Structure formats: structure tokens, C-alpha cells
UniProtKB/TrEMBL annotation:
This is Argininosuccinate synthase. It comes from Antrihabitans stalagmiti. Its EC number is 6.3.4.5. SUPFAM superfamilies: Adenine nucleotide alpha hydrolases-like, Argininosuccinate synthetase, C-terminal domain. Pathway: Amino-acid biosynthesis; L-arginine biosynthesis; L-arginine from L-ornithine and carbamoyl phosphate: step 2/3. It catalyses: L-citrulline + L-aspartate + ATP = 2-(N(omega)-L-arginino)succinate + AMP + diphosphate + H(+). HAMAP family: Arg_succ_synth_type1. It is an enzyme of class 6 (ligase). L-aspartate binds at T119, N123, D124. Its main location: cytoplasm. GO terms for biological process: argininosuccinate metabolic process; L-arginine biosynthetic process; urea cycle.
Length: 404
């Protein structure tokens, strides 16, 4: 019986070529799996048919938009996850979902090999393969782009020589990955760090100056860390992301120009567009400032960076990530309330907060009449708070006087 390869299929050049190449070079049958994560572009039925036209024996198309929003974007919001304090994990959180569905497809269609179209320089090869090895260690992994040193030129030549039904061009300089959570653009002239992005790089956002005189003020409501309404209208997590992509994108919000540390040890320059993601994380962070007790908030902020690193590094299914998820969910018990923001000129400005779970006490915070804070207790507190530093400084001072 021939091998059956389950391929993560995007509908683009590399994975379309991979279908034909795998068949010709290995004799294996290919099951193409394409997943709708809200990336837009081509109709998924067109993508499904292209895989068949390229030689796939089965072509599976899945609508996973709600699953992606609920099970991957929402935990990212609740963890305020920004890798290197900037990148909202646009590609990183989509890979474990794709891995999960490829493993399911392999079980359903009798596949014994899973395949991806990643290069050897990127993070995605790690995210895919660590995920496969965790969920289905019995499956072999095939990575033709990496393991056979494909270049775009080689892929185009193979497509032309083998009449693969896909429009190919050498003109587009960029490598693009996108989903409802955001859009990632790299390569081409962006590899020179001094080159500024030009307008053709962007798609989810407009120039921040276009609507500068028409700022957008809105209110995002959360229940236990989950976005549930915008301007009082109930929304699902997916709907919240979609609406904010449009509204924040119209204000130029969510454009990120990042030099990041890749897992493989090199630095890369990436342009990201994540309008909805950046607004939701900013609003959620602000509500946590109001509702989380000080020490819990401080500790959570430390773990947020570790959570982001684990996800970026392809360890979504790891024991530590699982344990941190439990902690994050526990912290969301009181993260309920409304955040008012203004989106304008590429910026997010919070100008209002309210919550029935708020730890802000007006009578303790005010400096006016009605102040209930006992200021007489502060003197002793200050003395005790600095006592250890005072004692250490005295020791050092005496040592200096003795010439030690």
C-alpha cells in the first residue's frame, strides 16, 4: 500500500508544487488540508479544487474561524501575549490549530506521513514538527522546501515544467502569512533594515493620516477576560476581532515594524498588521490594571512574557504552557468591565474604565474632602519599608570610613 501524505495546504505556489512533487518523487498519495482561519483572499472551494487539479487524491477544506478565535486568540488576549513586548503571535498561534487538524485528517484518511511547506530558516518548521511529535509521534514528517532546498525560482520552474495549475510570478517580493488575528510580511527589500515599508506592504490597515481628523471612540466590554460587546452590542470573540480589524485598521492602528529574535538563532525583520489584536490586548491589559490585585498583577506580567516565548517557540502543547494556561484562566475571574478607547492616527488611547469588580477605591485615592486614607500610618510604613536598605547603607558607609 502506498504511503499517504497529509499536507498542510495553503493554495499557494510552494504547497501546490509540493503536491505534484511528492507524488512524482516518492510515489505517495497526497491528502491536501486547507484551513480557513479568516485569512480572506480566495474562495476556499477554489483552493480545494486547485489541490485536486495539482494531483491530490483528497482535498479537505475546514472552516476553523470560530475555533481559532475561541481556543487560540482568546487565550492570547487573556495572556496579553506580545513576544518581545511587540509581536502578537499572528502566525505562532495558528500553527498548533493546523497541526491538530492535520493529525485528525491523517487518522481519518489513513495517512502515515504529515508534510508542511516551511523553510529551514523560520520558526514554523519547529512549530509544526514539535506539534506533530507531541500529538502523533507515530507519524513521519516530510518538509520538502527545507529538506530539498527549494527556492522560489526552483518552484516556479517545476510548476511550469509540470503544468501545475497555479499563476506564478517572480514579481512579488514578499512572503505573506495572514489570518483573522493579523498579517505578517517579510523578505524582499524589507530585508534591508534601513528600507522603510512602502504602501503596497499593507492590506489590513490604511495610512494613519487618512482618517486623522475623524477619530473613532468605542467601548469594549469584557466578562472574565472575554470580549463580549462593542459599544453595547454583543459579539463573539471572532466578531470582536473582525470588527476591530476594520475600525482600528481604518485608523492605521496595529502596524508593527519589528526586528525579532527567531528560534533558530537569527534576527529577522517582519512587518505585522494586527489592528484587532492590538486593540483587544490593550483594552484587556487596562481592565486588568483596574481589577487585578497588585501582587497577582505583577506576577502575571512576568508569566505573560514566558507564555509568549513558549508559544513563539512552538511549545503550545508543552506541560509548562498547559500549567500557565491554568494560572491565566484563574486570574480572569474578576476581569469584567468596560474600557473606552480612542483610535486615531495609528494610536490607541484609553480614556475611560469602569468595572463592578474594580479595586479602585475613590475614597482612598482622592486628595479632596472625603479622603479615608489614614496618612498617619504612612510614616511607620515608609521607615520599615526602607529599613533593610538603610542598614546595608550604614554597613557600607562604616566600611568606607575604615578604608575597607
Amino acid at each position: 500500500m502506498a504511503d499517504r501524505v497529509v499536507l498542510a495546504y495553503s493554495g499557494g505556489l510552494d504547497t501546490s508544487v509540493a503536491i505534484s512533487w511528492i507524488g512524482k518523487e516518492t510515489g505517495a498519495e497526497v491528502i491536501a488540508v486547507a484551513i480557513d482561519l479568516g485569512q480572506g483572499g480566495e474562495d476556499m472551494e477554489v483552493v480545494r479544487q486547485r489541490a485536486l487539479d495539482c494531483g491530490a487524491v483528497e482535498s479537505v477544506v475546514l472552516d476553523a474561524r470560530d475555533e481559532f478565535a475561541e481556543d487560540y486568540c482568546l487565550p492570547t488576549i487573556q495572556a496579553n501575549a506580545l513576544y518581545m513586548d511587540r509581536y502578537p503571535l499572528v502566525s505562532a498561534i495558528s500553527r498548533p490549530l493546523i497541526v491538530k487538524h492535520l493529525v485528525t485528517a491523517a487518522r481519518t484518511h489513513g495517512g502515515n506521513i504529515v508534510a508542511h511547506g516551511c523553510t529551514g530558516k523560520g520558526n514554523d518548521q519547529v512549530r509544526f514538527e514539535v506539534g506533530f511529535n507531541t500529538l502523533a509521534p507515530d507519524l513521519e514528517v516530510l518538509a520538502p522546501v527545507r529538506d530539498y532546498a527549494w527556492t522560489r525560482e526552483k518552484a516556479i520552474r517545476f510548476a511550469e515544467e509540470n503544468a501545475i495549475p497555479i499563476n506564478v510570478t517572480k514579481k512579488s517580493p514578499f512572503s505573506i502569512d495572514q489570518n483573522v488575528w493579523g498579517r505578517a510580511v517579510e523578505t524582499g527589500y524589507l530585508e534591508d533594515l534601513w528600507n522603510a515599508p512602502t504602501k503596497e506592504v499593507y492590506d489590513y490597515t490604511v495610512d494613519p493620516t487618512v482618517n486623522f481628523l475623524a477619530p473613532d471612540e468605542l467601548i469594549i466590554s469584557f466578562e472574565k477576560g472575554r470580549p463580549v460587546a462593542i459599544d453595547g452590542r454583543e459579539v463573539s470573540v471572532l466578531q470582536a476581532i473582525q470588527e476591530l480589524n476594520k475600525r482600528a485598521g481604518a485608523q492605521g492602528v496595529g502596524r508593527l515594524d519589528v526586528v525579532e529574535d527567531r528560534l533558530v538563532g537569527i534576527k529577522s525583520r517582519e512587518i505585522y498588521e494586527a489592528p484587532g489584536a492590538m486593540v483587544l490586548i490593550a483594552a484587556h491589559q487596562e481592565l486588568e490594571h483596574v481589577t487585578l490585585e497588585r501582587e497577582l498583577g505583577r506576577y502575571k506580567r512576568q508569566l505573560e512574557q514566558r507564555w509568549s516565548e513558549l508559544v513563539y517557540d512552538g511549545l503550545w502543547f508543552s506541560p509548562l504552557k498547559d500549567a500557565l494556561d491554568t494560572f491565566v484562566v484563574h486570574t480572569q475571574e474578576h476581569v469584567t468591565g468596560d474600557i473606552r478607547l480612542v483610535l486615531n492616527g495609528g494610536h490607541i488611547s484609553v480614556n475611560g474604565r469602569r468595572s463592578k469588580e474594580s479595586l479602585y477605591d475613590f475614597n482612598l485615592a482622592t486628595y479632596d474632602e472625603g479622603d479615608t486614607f489614614d496618612q498617619s500610618a504612612a510614616k511607620g510604613f515608609v521607615q520599615l519599608h526602607g529599613l533593610s536598605s538603610k542598614i546595608a547603607a550604614r554597613r557600607n558607609r562604616l566600611a568606607g570610613e575604615r578604608g575597607l
